[in-house]
Design goal:
about 325 residues; alpha/beta; Arc Repressor Mutant, subunit A; D-Maltodextrin-Binding Protein, domain 2; 3 domains; 7-stranded mixed beta sheet; two-stranded antiparallel ribbon; 10 helices; 11 strands; about 40% helix; globular; DNA-binding transcriptional LysR family regulator; LysR_HTH_N; DNA-binding; transcription regulation
């Protein structure tokens, strides 16, 4: 009866999938290698399938294992959500809240906001996930997410923050060495920093901006943080958040009239968490802090509250 399979078997299965070996999974999970091996063997026996085959490079997942991965990760997410909920019981704001944001926002924008939040609520523990992958709030991969797109799921509540503007920037040292491009047609003569595999907003920009293609990029990195580091190092011209660049007097914005992308920014979470003290205060802190960062004149950060209903895009 496969419905009696314990979560620990799937946990070890995911560990081997991610690490590629029993020893790697054991280290990651804090268990012994024989225990990890017994768990995988027990899961294979219970399901009546082969999950891994041995090779010179380690354990290779079978097609069955790959098919099971998404389901096992959903179980992992639910288990983590249950643990966070269990540690959040009691009086006051306490327990774990998991916040997801893009690489740049999570690394460059949220740390001071989270610092203030923790100073006000020291019993609150914050897990910050910096990733450009959209975390699934319905599956509780995160409690709260900062997104650059309006949430569409009916089960989510959200607060619109405003637009985060992107523009071309370069370090003063780069401009001193190579000059300032006068228009977009000058970009091919410069070292332009961009993506190897462009995201959606870059593909959209390419439709309306001449010469803005993958071939334009002399320096390519799929990490936003790597691109930002290259801009700060004076390696070339790249796209970064205008608000972030304003913090560094060495960064100069280029061709603002010719190039500007605005990303609609939202703070969102599952509606089931609206009455959770830990999530409510974290939600409000993110709304207030990000509103200051974006500089949205319409946001009343002094009175930012949990939304009573789902916000409309025009709010």
């Amino acid at each position: 009866m496969t419905w009696n399979i314990g979560w620990e078997l799937y946990r070890s299965f995911l560990g081997v999938l991610r690490e590629g070996s029993l020893s790697g999974a054991a280290r990651a999970l804090g268990i012994t290698q024989p225990t990890a091996g017994r768990h995988v063997a027990a899961l294979e026996e219970a399901l009546g399938v082969v999950l891994f085959t041995r090779s010179q490079t380690g354990l290779l997942p079978t097609e069955v294992a790959l098919a099971l991965r998404t389901h096992a990760e959903a179980m992992e997410s639910i288990a983590a959500s249950m643990e966070r909920a269990a540690t959040s019981q009691g009086e006051g704001v306490r327990g774990v809240v998991r916040v997801s944001a893009s690489e740049v926002v999570g690394t460059e924008v949220l740390p001071p906001i989270i610092t203030q939040l923790r100073e006000a609520h020291p019993a609150l523990k914050v897990e910050l996930v910096s990733t450009n992958r959209v975390q699934d709030l319905l599956r509780r991969e995160a409690d709260i997410a900062v997104r650059m797109v309006r949430p569409r799921q009916e089960q989510l509540v959200a607060r619109r923050i405003g637009n985060i503007e992107l523009g071309f920037h370069a370090h003063r040292d780069y401009i001193a060495r190579h000059g300032t491009p006068r228009n977009l047609d000058d970009l091919p003569t410069h070292a332009v920093i961009g993506y190897d595999q462009p995201p959606a907003f870059v593909r959209a920009a390419g439709k309306s901006i001449r010469n803005f293609t993958r071939d334009t990029f002399s320096l390519r990195a799929d990490s936003d943080l790597a691109q930002l580091a290259l801009i700060r190092a004076g390696a070339g011209i790249g796209v970064c958040q205008v608000g972030l660049a304003k913090r560094d007097p060495a960064l100069v914005r280029l061709m603002p009239r010719a190039f500007s992308l605005k990303l609609d920014t939202w703070v969102t979470m599952h509606e089931d968490l609206r009455n959770s003290p830990r999530c409510r205060v974290a939600f409000d802190a993110l709304v207030e802090g990000l509103s200051r960062y974006v500089g949205n004149a319409e946001a009343d950060t002094a009175q930012a509250k949990m939304p009573r209903a789902r916000q409309q895009a025009s709010e």
